[in-house]
Amino acid sequence: MADEFDLILDKCIDRINHGENLEKCLADYPAYADRLEPMLKAVTKTKAAYAFVPSDDAKRTARQKLYSALERRRYPSFWQRIAQPRLAWVSAISIIVLLVVSLVVLRPILWQETSEIPDLPIINIPSADADGNFIFMVSDDVNAIDEFNTVNVTIEKVWLLKTGEPEQWVEFTPSTQTFDLAQLPGDTTQALWQGNVPLGEYSRVVIEVSSVTGTLISTEQTIEIKLPSDKLQVKIPFVVSADSVTSFTYDLTVVKTGNTQDGGKYLLKPQAGESGASQVPLNKPESPNEGKGQGEPKK
User: Fold this and answer.
1) Digit-coded pLDDT (tens) for 57-66
2) What pLDDT, on the 0 to 100 scale, is given for residue 52?
3) Does the residue 249 lie in any domain?
4) How many whole angstroms separate alpha carbon 275 and alpha carbon 251?
């Protein structure tokens, strides 16, 4: 029983950290409500006391430094390339060790860093529903988007990973597949699909992006924006319940990398820290569809 209570407590803490309220968690586990309430209240107070939201400028500067550092590591200088043969035997041993560790230890989670999707059963949702229990939305996190007049992104498919026994993919095709990310800065969102998905807990969202093009403000040139993979994913747990409509906002951002001399490159990246789900009770006076679409504030 203690193990079961610890597991329930962990689930409730995760749910509160991702935006759910304390009362909802207590209602889902009435047998443990008396024991859960004081602990979850402490978690809520601690979260509020230590909450910190960095400014958009700070986040943009940090990300630019990170991607510039990654770009320098990807393309080493001339003298670094000259020195590499001297360390070839060390590199070979390191690669062998890393391969062994990856195969033995990291294989179960390796897919999280690649575009591969685990071979699991797929539930296909054939059509949208304006009164459905799930809304898929997109938004842009502030970064290099202010250098573009337009950034047109096309999403072919969306997959939601439903947890449980067995794990399953829930797949649907967005009703709106191409959208202008430049029109969705900061807290602005656009709904691409609404429909009914199976009730339960989910752990991640994957999108298949077929193309990204942007028109630069400075030159009015239309360029292709690169992708780290055609399948972008964020690992964020959320719940779809019978008494509410769940809205999931998938946050994307355009970042600039490379040297300023050659104009740099632009990449489209998912932003797990800015993505997430929110819920609207079905008994709320306003319709869950009100305000949905381009220009809706991020939940």
Assistant:
1) 777 777 777 7
2) 59
3) yes
4) 5
Strand partners, 204: 161
β-strands 265-270, 244-257: how paired?
Answer: antiparallel
**Is 173 in the same domain as 283?**
yes
How many residues in total does the chain contain?
Answer: 299
Q: What is the model's pTM?
A: 0.58
Q: Which amino acid is at 192?
A: L
Q: What is the CA radius of gyration of the chain?
A: 22
Task: Judge if 157 and 263 occupy the same domain.
Answer: yes
Residue whose tokens read 């990398």? 257
User: What pLDDT, in 10s, does the model give residues 50-98?
Assistant: 665 666 777 777 777 776 776 666 656 655 665 555 555 656 666 666 6
Question: Positive or negative, the Cα torsion across 90, 65, 210, 139?
Answer: positive
- Quote the pLDDT of residue 61: 74
Contacts of 79 (CB under 8 A, 6+ apart): none
Residue 13 structural domain: 2-49
Report the alpha-carbon distance of residue 255 to residue 151 in Å, rounded. 12
Phi and psi torsions of 178, nearest 5°: -115, 130
